[in-house]
Amino acid sequence: MAKLEELKASIKGGALRPWTFQGISAVWFDKHLYQPLLALEGGVVEISPAPLNRGERRFVEDLKAYCDGNAAAFEGRELYLLRNLSRGRGIGFFEAGNFHPDFILWLLADDRQHVTFVDPKGIRNVGADDPKIRFFETIKEIERRLGDPKVALDSFIVSSTPSHVMKKLWGIGKPEMAARHIAFQEEDRGSYIAAILHGIGGERVARSGR
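-> structure tokens emitted (210 positions)
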């Protein structure tokens, strides 16, 4: 009970900090459009929206760490993150096999909006030509149909599967996978967020973190 009371007090007092209670963890990131994001460590609990899995939670934590460590680079720019809702309620793409990416990342720079769909996932069992993998091309076709020069659309897969495993399965090297907007979460922990931001037009932001 003491832990529960401490949790209630921290929320009421506005002390937004990570907490864990009975297998549920809260992840606070002020760039996310609602707070907190919840991760389920174990047990059987129903959470809505669906809780973060390990890869999703790490992506949020890595993005938060990058933003916290490079605050000056975001002067004059705005960055926002939103967890996509589940299939049937969130944003899905029929063109990509009804693909529902896990996150929507907005970068507002000058008079342009960069809207990027990010999906952390293991890809060991996903083919190289799967619609989710080719979504980086599909989203650019959607951008062309949109026809708004002030809005850029992009997508990235954040893979928890190592690149050397995928090289054996797909027969292509890491540079070719990067060209398909696949970032590797574990092996490039210190650089993949910068690579994503650079890929969506945030060159100034990405340079500061190198």
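The helical segments are 2-12, 54-69, 135-146, 163-170, 174-179, 192-199, 203-208.
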